[in-house]
Design a protein that fits this description.
Helices cover 62% and strands 7% of the residues. The protein is an alpha/beta fold and 351 residues long.
Length: 351
């Protein structure tokens, strides 16, 4: 009876876990949609306002030209009558011709001045219409102080997804950094997609740390798809993110293909035995490059995964370190894991 109650509680806990993950994912998607919709409406409003301004400017110019043209014609007619009336006096005719010349010069200067004002107004409008993108001067200055192909540490700077665009351009592309530490920030799956796009063909970054961010399984999918192509990234820290068995499946599929990654940290995630077992099996049978794996602090890792972990330790030739401390393992199974550790040379188990 007690076993049945325990199973029921476990099932309920798993359902709650899955519901929580689903709600988190849905909330993130809704937030992204709301932000995108707001940006679209703002852009439409801006474009409509600028179009109205342009139309108003063109109307003002047309009215100005029409008014001054009518005035010039009326003045020219008046001067013509004056020429007729002053035909008896050469002196008066010269004065009228002088007035006519002054009128012509005035009209020419007026048109030139108005044309320059219109051109300046147009240029100013174009400058105003140029979108001002997201800026983070402090972040740019920090990256600017780093050397080419060096380690750039942005841990705990409260970076958001928009900051990752700056990081991609300034740190990854321009500085060609070899290590990028982005732990303890507020990066979500959107930021992960920016990083993944930048790292697909990158050949300089070797270490990427994303511990304690807001990544979920969607973000892990972006990163694992990138790791199937990337040829330089060796160390990846995803500790403390909202990774479930779905994310573990993406990681498992990636490790079938990737032959570059040597260090992978999945500490303090929400991966349980159903995610750990296939991951361990792939590392045992298909992966020959991973050297260090951390599963510390995964409270959903229990005795059900022990056999898979033992087989992984004994069957994989490249793995040299495994962290599984602070997990839900019994003393008996911890002893079995210690036996597996001793049976393998140059291997260290942290438990």
């Amino acid at each position: 009876m007690g076993g049945t109650v325990t199973k029921v509680r476990t099932s309920v806990a798993q359902v709650q876990e899955n519901m929580g993950t689903t709600l988190t994912t849905a909330t993130n998607m809704i937030n992204h949609l709301q932000r995108d919709a707001s940006n679209i409406m703002a852009n439409l409003a801006h474009e409509s306002l600028e179009s109205l301004r342009g139309l108003t400017a063109r109307m003002d110019r047309s009215v100005f030209l029409l008014t001054h043209t009518v005035m010039a014609i009326a003045t020219a007619i008046a001067l013509s009558f004056l020429l007729l009336l002053t035909s008896f006096s050469p002196f008066l005719r010269n004065i009228v011709w002088l007035m006519f010349a002054i009128l012509c010069i005035y009209m020419i200067l007026t048109y030139i001045q108005h044309s320059q004002s219109a051109l300046l107004s147009s240029s100013t409008t174009q400058v105003e219409e140029k979108p001002i993108g997201y800026q983070n001067t402090l972040l740019e200055n920090i990256i600017a102080q780093s050397n080419i192909q060096s380690a750039i540490d942005l841990t705990g700077h409260q970076l958001i997804d928009d900051d990752i665009k700056i990081v991609v351009i300034q740190a990854i592309i321009k500085k060609k950094c070899t290590q990028l530490k982005l732990g303890q920030n507020r990066i979500t799956s959107t930021g992960a997609s920016y990083l993944a796009d930048a790292l697909r063909q990158n050949n300089t970054l070797e270490v990427l740390s994303l511990w304690n961010n807001n990544l979920n399984d969607i973000g892990i999918r972006y990163l694992t798809d990138m790791l199937k192509i990337n040829k330089s990234l060796k160390k990846l820290d995803l500790s403390g993110n909202h990774i479930t068995n779905i994310g573990a499946m993406h990681l498992t599929n990636m490790l079938k293909i990737n032959r570059i990654l040597t260090h992978l940290s999945l500490s303090r995630t929400k991966i349980d035995d159903k995610g750990i077992q296939p991951l361990a099996n792939i590392i045992q049978n298909n992966n020959k490059t991973l050297q260090v794996l951390s599963l510390s602090g995964n409270k959903l890792l229990t005795d059900l995964s022990v056999n898979a972990l033992i087989n992984m330790i004994r069957g994989n030739q490249s793995l040299t370190k495994l962290w599984i401390d602070d997990c839900e393992l019994s003393k008996k199974n911890q002893a079995e894991l210690r036996k597996a550790e001793k049976s393998k040379k140059n291997f260290k188990l942290h438990m």
